Amino acid sequence: AFSVHDNRYFSSYIYKNIEKSIPNIEFKKEYWRLDLSILGIDMGTTGTKAIAFDYDGKILSGNYIEYDTVFVKEGFIEIEPQVVIKSALNVLKKVASEVSKKDPIKAIGISCLGAVVVPIDNNGKYLHNGITFMDSRTVERFEEKTGMDGFEVYSITGIPPNPFFTLSKILWLKENKPGIFNSGATFYSFKELLHIKLGIEPKSDPSIASSTMMFDLNNNNWSDKIFKNIGLGIDRFPEIVESGEIIGEIEQIKANELNLEKGVKVIAGAVDTATCPLGAGVYKPGLVSNTIGTFEEAVTISDKIKIDRDMMEKGIIYSKHLLPNKYLVQGFPTTGGHVLKWFKNQFCELEEDAAEKKEIDPYDIILDKIDVTDTDILFLPHLSGSGTPNIDENSRGAFLKISAGSTKADFTKAIIEGLNFEIKIAIDYFEEEIGKINEIHVTGGAVKSDKWMQIKSDILDKDIISFEVNEAGVLGAAILTAYGTGEYKNIDEAEKNMTRTKKIFKPDKNKSGYYNQKYSSYKKLYDILKEINNS
Questions:
Q1: What is the pLDDT of residue 25?
Q2: From CA 55, how far away is CA 257, in angstroms rounded?
């Protein structure tokens, strides 16, 4: 007897048991289906997504809730943990209810933003908002308070000392909120807070722990020296297990509340900087994941770490990948989609009005006007300072070589070119220090624009590959979950089955001379303008 859907598909249970019982039997894929689903959750800075996937990476149902960050004062940017966790539970319940009858959820994987922790007491009370990566509150005398110079911190953690990572936030709490620091509260990332709400003992993983600037890359655990030097017990942070490890199953009472079945497995999960590359097919060296969001990140994979002062000064970040014995390598991002958003908000009122009337995205109109001809305008996109390789918070944006004939479309194109020149600097450094980059895998809102992607391909002189599922963080969490729960024997098999290419953009060789010359000029801009920006 077979359990079937519409009299055609074998259920996953029957399929797998037949396969085990009759080793030589072969099923054509169109005659069977996996009737269970995986839920991926991605908890970000401005919203949380949940998507249920089948085991071929097809989206079955999804939901998203947006929320606001809290601007306490200049440079102080926080997230309310109760808002984030409530949103995560709501999107989970919504998706679970939509797939519960036909494709019930079997396992859950969680991705979340890094470098943010929340202190909670023994009663589960949140004692402070999460302090975001974008928050720039500083700690004076960092080296004195950690008992280490910057390079020693970098040698242990792979993160160049700066105010954006968790260690600086913990020191700020120690200095400004001693009641919290000395209370015995435990510090959890958002995915661990969600573990608690699911009735699972919270566990950290190497990728999220690595984003704190308190993790020892060499020993694959919390740094004894850093914790001791700042007067904090290691037990104030959760135990670290591998990202794909099953850490518990949801009990009946909690399952009923969430529209789930009893026994749904939960894996430890990972940081979004690791799940996004995985969801974009980047899980081995030679590839770059280019996520174009508020900040544009370029991340590659390495089998080893190279720690020296030059890497530190250029802001090169090493962190643990969600797979054992692999590392994420990324530059320090300060540019991205927020630059184009600034341009839209300040100069594109007509396009916004037209988009409202047509009920379309204003960026579609703005980007569609990009002229295919070349423009002489150069744009330095340092609206939030300079990232890799010239870490300089005082650097500012500039348009150069403007003429009376310059158009709004020329300015738009110069912005897109400037953003991609910034990424090219990071990728050039990857190739110099780590190895040849063969492909760039792109995700994010900008992927909708073919013109943007073609400019990216022409500037980087690489194939640019987009994917059918653009929500890379959620898909990456689902891929990790499918692997962690044993549905696939390795990540390579999970990737091949759950990701599908949408478009490939190839560099136009006729553009190489133009962009090589323009890139050469672009690389001089920072030094030319440095004296003015720092005066």
A1: 56
A2: 25
pLDDT at residue 2, rounded to an integer: 41
CA distances for 420 relative to 293, 296, 461, 506, angstroms: 13, 9, 11, 15
Could you tell me the two tokens for 246? 């099953």
* C-alpha separations of 35 from 157, 345, 482 in Å: 42, 46, 14
For tokens 């400037």, name the residue. 418
Q: Are 501 and 467 in contact (CB under 8 A)?
A: yes
Compute the Cα dihedral for 517, 523, 526, 531 and give only its sign: negative
Q: What pLDDT does residue 118 have?
A: 98
The tens digit of pLDDT for each residue in 172-184 reads 999 999 999 999 9
Q: Give pLDDT, residue 372.
A: 72
Q: How far apart are CA 55 and CA 36, in angstroms?
A: 8
What span, in angstroms and rounded, lies between the C-alpha atoms of 51 and 111?
Answer: 12
In tens, the pLDDT along 60-109 reads: 999 999 999 999 998 899 999 999 999 999 999 999 999 999 999 999 99
Q: What are phi and psi of 424, to 5 degrees?
A: -65, -35
Predicted local distance difference test score (pLDDT) of residue 24: 60
Q: What is the mean pLDDT of residues 171-198?
A: 97
Output the DSSP codes for 240-308.
B--TT-EEEE--HHHHHHTT--TT-EEE--EEHHHHHHHHTT--STTEEEEEESSSEEEEEEESS----
Residue 488 has pLDDT above 80, yes or no: yes
Could you report how far apart the first and last alpha carbons of the chain are, in Å? 80
For residue 454, give both structure tokens.
């073609």
Question: Can the peptide bond before residue 389 be classed as cis, meaning omega within 30 degrees of 0?
Answer: yes
Residue with tokens 């940081």: 271
* CA separation for the pair 205, 245 (Å, rounded): 9
Q: What are phi and psi of 393, to 5 degrees?
A: -70, -15
Asked if 449 and 412 touch (Cβ cutoff 8 Å), the reply is: no
Say whether 227 sits in a helix, a strand or coil: helix
Which residue type does 324 have? P
Are the beta carbons of 464 and 440 closer than 8 angstroms? yes
**Which two tokens mark 378?**
């150069």
Bridge-based pairing state of the strands 47-53 and 37-43: antiparallel
Residue carrying the six token digits 């050469």: 520
Residue 485 pLDDT greater than 60, yes or no: yes
**Residue owning tokens 């909120």:** 177
Instruction: Choose among 114, 97, 120, 141: nearest CA to 42.
Output: 114
- Residue 183 has a CB neighbour count (10 Å cut-off) of 14
pTM (whole model) above 0.85: yes
